[in-house]
Specification:
Blueprint: H1 2-43, H2 59-69, H3 80-95, H4 136-146, H5 148-157, H6 161-192, H7 197-205, H8 217-230, H9 242-245, H10 255-280, H11 298-323, H12 331-360
Helix pairs in contact: 1-10, 1-11, 2-10, 3-4, 3-5, 3-10, 5-6, 6-7, 6-8, 6-12, 8-10, 8-12, 10-11
């Protein structure tokens, strides 16, 4: 019996952690939509949603039921299998990086005293990461890059010229800005000496600079701009461009299929906010918190987690603020900006970081 408990209990704990992580992210995504509608309303002198629940807090659930019960329209001449596959690919690739995000420090003082068995020291540590891998940065960048296939396939399979143009724009946009984003991450990786997301956080804890935003401010700005383009948000929302392409790649999508694309966009916003926080703002690390609570204790992990979520919410608010402030670029302006300004700036930052690492290691 003891051997069975030792085998099943860790699996049960991990399963609960996976469920809570995904549910937490989906709830943040749902209320990001509500926050966006509220903040845009304030910026534009409107009230925003305020009918469903107190202050409109139940609006995301009303929207979900609306998508569920709307008529599902499928174009007659669409390529059906690919047409249905595209939104699934987009949402799956948006959600997969969640498994490697470090949501907080590991809890090392946890006690499973209610169990009648000694589970060993390895069970007494509760990591706040679903899966810690040595190449977490590459995993996130690789998975999010595949997500563009969902948009491209949606544009092609719909058999609609507007949708096709949106898919082609998204592909060109990804190629242009993925290079700058990758180059901006190289500086952080060189300073941290690892591709592990947890390792990057610990490198910032032990760094003389503190958070990497100080020595990597140029990389931070490049990553942030490239991230806006990667997630197809204003001022880089050319694949959708309502004034030019009706709704771009999802013109022919309705009901739950449209909801999947909608969710994928906001999950990608969450992914970018997490990556910016981990790479440049110390992740869950809050300076001075170790002087108040014992490292590894539950209160230390709890407040670190709250600080981590607070940083993410600040970047999500920045996304919304930019949408309500800046106009959309023309497509030629977007491509010129990516290739002629952002990429050279990212490469210059790499050279600058090489000099920093060289002089620090002399």
């Amino acid at each position: 019996m003891e051997a069975i408990v030792k085998t099943i209990f860790p699996v049960a704990v991990i399963s609960v952690g996976i469920f809570l992580a995904f549910q937490g992210v989906l709830m943040i995504v749902a209320y990001t939509v509500l926050a966006e509608r509220k903040v845009l309303g304030w910026i534009q002198g409107r009230i925003g949603p305020n009918r469903v629940g107190w202050w409109g807090v139940l609006q995301p659930f009303a929207d979900l039921f609306k998508f569920i019960f709307k008529e599902d329209i499928v174009p007659d001449k669409s390529t059906k299998f690919v047409y249905y596959l595209a939104p699934i690919v987009a949402l799956t690739c948006a959600l997969l990086p969640i498994v490697v995000y470090p949501f907080g420090p590991a809890i090392t003082t946890i006690d499973w005293g209610f169990l009648p068995y000694n589970l060993g020291d390895n069970i007494r540590q509760l990591p706040m990461t679903i899966a810690q891998i040595d190449v977490g940065v590459l995993f996130v960048l690789g998975i999010t890059s595949v997500g563009v296939y969902g948009i491209a396939l949606a544009g092609w399979s719909s058999n609609n010229k507007y949708s096709l143009m949106g898919g082609l724009r998204s592909s060109a946009q990804l190629i242009s800005y993925e290079l700058a984003m990758g180059a901006s991450v190289i500086g952080v990786v060189m300073l941290a000496g690892t591709l592990d997301l947890n390792g990057i956080i610990f490198a910032q804890i032990n760094s003389p600079f503190g958070w990497f935003i100080i020595p990597q401010f140029i990389g931070f700005v490049v990553f942030l701009i490239a991230a806006f383009a990667e997630t197809n948000r204003v001022p880089f929302d050319l694949p959708e461009a309502e004034t030019e392409l009706v709704a771009g790649f999802h013109t022919e999508y309705s009901a739950l299929k449209f909801a999947l694309f909608f969710m994928a966009e906001y999950v990608n916003m969450f992914t970018v906010s997490v990556m910016v926080t981990v790479l440049f703002l110390g992740g869950w690390y809050i300076p001075g918190l170790s002087y108040i609570f014992e490292v590894g204790s539950i209160p230390y992990a709890l407040f670190s987690h709250i600080g981590f979520i607070g940083k993410i919410c600040a970047f999500l608010f920045f996304y919304i603020w930019i949408r309500g402030t800046l106009p959309r670029f023309r497509f030629d302006q977007l491509m010129n900006f990516g290739w002629k300004f952002l990429l050279p700036l990212a490469l210059a930052n790499v050279i600058f970081t090489i000099l920093i690492v060289y002089f620090l290691n002399r």
